[in-house]
């Protein structure tokens, strides 16, 4: 790393949520700043650093979880008033810890996102779907969002001259408001999780905002009065974690503020604006757990700037420009090493005291556990979890993060799923054989983690049409042994992802439902079938959602209202799955459905043409992998491989990459075979013909892998 940042761990508080740590403004130029942080035990902690030690300024009493922490203050004064969101209440503290505000809002749900405007009088609060704007604690504006709100901010009034709030919503939209009305929506490449003003002030115009998404992408958009202007967008080429926090700060000392990014896989990144077009990743630093908050400032020592990060388990870690080891034999080096020695000896004595305490408590516990009146208490621990569909490889990522070290995780599924390889995963996995018949167990796998692993990432790929539950049993390294179970729904159309628009020129199959059902009932069925649909019934009389299949690229359009629903897809298997599941759900509720469908012959050919290139590629990959061992044996016997054909020499040269790719997606070819077989069966199912007896013949044709032959077989059958 060029700036030579050294890591310093200052203090650990309780588990922290996203955006709950800030630095109070410094009293003078280059002076050290106080740190204020709120944790999920409900404690607000404010501290400064003196001689490398954390010195508390104030600490509040425990209570409900703190969801957000922001700073505010009157216009043109230091922003040093502390505002925290706890449940449905906002509390305000001075920098000395005196509470000056306790504002109980009229929200029915807990506050999820908060923004305090520079004026200090305007407060923007969001629950799951609801946005409220308060001025001097009086309700001003209200907006109901179409999907969950992840973050909120407001453009600076001193530059933009009007209050312009921006909501980051789960359905891949930024919603720009004016009062209680929607001004316009901005499509972004992933679900936006965090918003920040560009350069900390919205840029020269005050209209520029930076967003980070759940799938690790970054972008900058200018919010003008009439329409958005996209400035730049950076993809996630390195397949890193989702973005949780952003800040602008000049850490490189070049006079231009860099963009600081904190991700949920523990990466801290510094992006520099070398040219006007888009920022370039200059440096990165890996912490072992997700970075919930990030800010640049001066914390540890006067004159030395640093990046301060708050991690999920509550560690406040600085990446400082202060040199840890100085060159040469100056007296300063001796003084520094003396300071270090004192710190090390104090840590050693603290450690010895703790070990003594642990031994005493353990003996006490052993004695009390043998008495007949003893009651064993289950230690509580918090788990941060994320189960998301990756568009790039049509797989689900399950990320589990625990505040203490994980001992093992048992994964169980009642539907067939494939476990895929994850590069970052150092845990040892072992599979148990399971009986799929009596108790519908299709997967039992145990991940045994190495010491001090607090974060585990798994990847699974489901099969559309097969739906059920995936369960993760998480056991941390604490005594007495405790386990938490987390459940994740695998939906019937699990590989579909929400999209903003589809290609209407494709040949479509249509499924029409009519019956005595309410808007809320049909919406609940769609939520059951498809991922990324908001659980709350949409406002209005009807709704349209668009989806894309991440594995095949086929699409689905669903439009429904009270008493009727229309589903259109270019993949007949998608329509078949919907027909089966929706009629089952209606039967459960004793609702009589009138189902009709319109099948397009052309759509089957179109879907086969979409699948075929993938099939060809996977078959070629499998053939190459099967040849590697034989070619390597030849190489050993003959000494050189010059006599081989160029294509075989290429296979040997690329052997490691080919094996790696094949290992990453073990059952890819079988999945494609399965999809083509389902397509064949579904095509004739709608005609009332059972063609299961012709499946072996179809598999023979698939091995030959000829697109025209495949299409003519579908037509002739």
Automatic annotation (TrEMBL):
Region forming the signal peptide: none
Listed InterPro entries: Bardet-Biedl_syndrome_7_prot, BBS7_GAE_dom, BBS7_hairpin, BBS7_pf_dom, Beta-prop_BBS7, WD40_repeat_dom_sf
SUPFAM superfamilies, sorted: WD40 repeat-like
Gene Ontology annotations of biological process type: intracellular protein localization; non-motile cilium assembly
Domain BBS7 helical hairpin: 601-714
Coiled coil ranges: 337-371
Keywords recorded for this protein, A-Z: Coiled coil
Pfam annotation, one family: Beta-prop_BBS7
Domain BBS7 beta-propeller positions: 21-321
Residue ranges of every copy of the BBS7 GAE domain listed in the record: 379-488
GO cellular component: axoneme; BBSome; ciliary basal body; membrane; neuron projection
Domain BBS7 platform: 496-598
Protein name: BBS7 protein
Organism lineage string: Eukaryota, Metazoa, Chordata, Craniata, Vertebrata
């Amino acid at each position: 790393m060029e700036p030579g940042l050294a890591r310093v761990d200052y203090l650990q508080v309780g588990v922290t949520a996203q955006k709950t740590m800030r630095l109070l403004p410094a009293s003078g130029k280059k002076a050290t700043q106080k740190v204020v942080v709120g944790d999920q035990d409900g404690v607000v902690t404010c501290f400064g650093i003196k001689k490398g030690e954390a010195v508390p300024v104030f600490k509040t009493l425990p209570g409900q979880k703190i969801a957000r922490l922001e700073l505010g203050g009157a216009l043109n004064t230091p922003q040093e008033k502390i505002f925290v969101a706890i449940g449905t209440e906002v509390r305000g503290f001075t920098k000395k810890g005196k509470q000056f505000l306790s504002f109980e809002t009229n929200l029915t749900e807990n506050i999820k996102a908060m923004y305090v405007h520079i004026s200090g009088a305007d407060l923007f609060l969001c629950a799951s779907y609801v946005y409220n704007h308060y001025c001097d604690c009086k309700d001003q504006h209200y907006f109901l969002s179409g999907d969950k709100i992840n973050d909120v901010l407001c453009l600076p009034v001193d530059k933009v001259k009007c209050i312009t709030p921006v909501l980051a919503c789960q359905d891949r939209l930024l919603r720009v408001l004016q009062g209680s009305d929607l001004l316009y929506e901005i499509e972004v490449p992933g679900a936006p999780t965090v918003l920040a003003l560009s350069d900390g002030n919205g840029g020269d115009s005050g209209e520029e905002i930076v967003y980070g998404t759940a799938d690790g992408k970054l972008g900058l958009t200018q919010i003008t009065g009439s329409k958005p202007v996209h400035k730049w967008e950076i993809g996630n080429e390195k397949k890193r974690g989702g973005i949780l926090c952003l800040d602008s700060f000049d850490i490189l000392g070049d006079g231009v503020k860099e963009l600081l990014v904190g991700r949920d896989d523990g990466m801290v990144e510094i992006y520099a604006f070398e040219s006007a077009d888009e920022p370039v990743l200059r440096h990165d630093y890996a912490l072992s757990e997700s970075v919930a908050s990030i800010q640049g400032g001066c914390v540890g020592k006067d004159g030395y700037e640093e990046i301060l990060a708050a991690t999920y388990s509550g560690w406040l870690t600085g990446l400082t420009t202060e040199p840890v080891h100085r060159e040469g034999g100056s007296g300063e080096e001796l003084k520094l090493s003396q300071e270090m020695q004192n710190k090390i000896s104090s840590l050693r004595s603290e450690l010895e005291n703790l070990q003594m305490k642990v031994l005493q408590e353990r003996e006490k516990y052993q004695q009390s556990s043998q008495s007949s009146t003893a009651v064993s208490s289950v230690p509580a621990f918090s788990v941060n979890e994320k189960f998301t569909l990756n568009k790039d490889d049509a797989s689900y990522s399950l990320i589990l993060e625990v505040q203490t070290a994980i001992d093992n995780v048992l994964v169980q599924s009642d539907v067939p799923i494939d476990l895929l390889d994850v590069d970052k995963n150092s845990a040892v996995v072992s599979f148990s054989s399971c009986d799929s018949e009596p108790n519908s167990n299709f997967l039992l796998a145990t991940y045994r983690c190495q010491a001090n692993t607090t974060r585990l990432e798994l990847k699974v790929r489901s099969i559309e049409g097969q739906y059920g539950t995936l369960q993760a049993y998480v056991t941390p390294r604490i005594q007495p042994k405790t386990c938490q179970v987390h459940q994740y729904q695998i939906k019937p159309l699990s590989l579909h992802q929400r999209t903003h628009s589809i290609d209407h020129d494709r040949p479509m199959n249509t499924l029409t439902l009519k019956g005595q059902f309410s808007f809320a009932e049909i919406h609940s069925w769609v939520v059951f079938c498809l991922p990324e649909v908001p659980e709350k019934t949409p406002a209005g009389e009807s709704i349209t959602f668009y989806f894309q299949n991440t594995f095949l690229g086929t699409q689905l359009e669903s439009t429904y209202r009270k008493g009727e629903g229309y589903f259109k897809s270019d993949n007949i298997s998608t329509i078949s799955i919907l027909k089966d599941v929706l009629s089952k759900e209606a039967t459960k509720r004793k609702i009589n459905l009138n189902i009709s469908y319109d099948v397009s012959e052309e759509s089957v050919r179109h879907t086969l043409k979409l699948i075929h290139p993938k099939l060809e590629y996977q078959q070629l990959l499998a053939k190459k992998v099967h040849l590697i061992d034989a070619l390597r044996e030849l190489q050993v016997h003959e000494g050189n491989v010059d006599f081989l054909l160029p294509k075989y020499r290429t296979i040997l040269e690329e052997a490691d990459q080919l094996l790696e790719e094949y290992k990453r997606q073990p059952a890819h070819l079988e999945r494609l075979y399965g999809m083509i077989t389902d397509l064949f069966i579904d095509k004739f199912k709608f005609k009332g013909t059972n063609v299961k007896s012709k499946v072996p013949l179809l598999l023979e044709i698939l091995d030959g892998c000829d697109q025209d032959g495949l299409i003519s077989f579908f037509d002739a059958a």
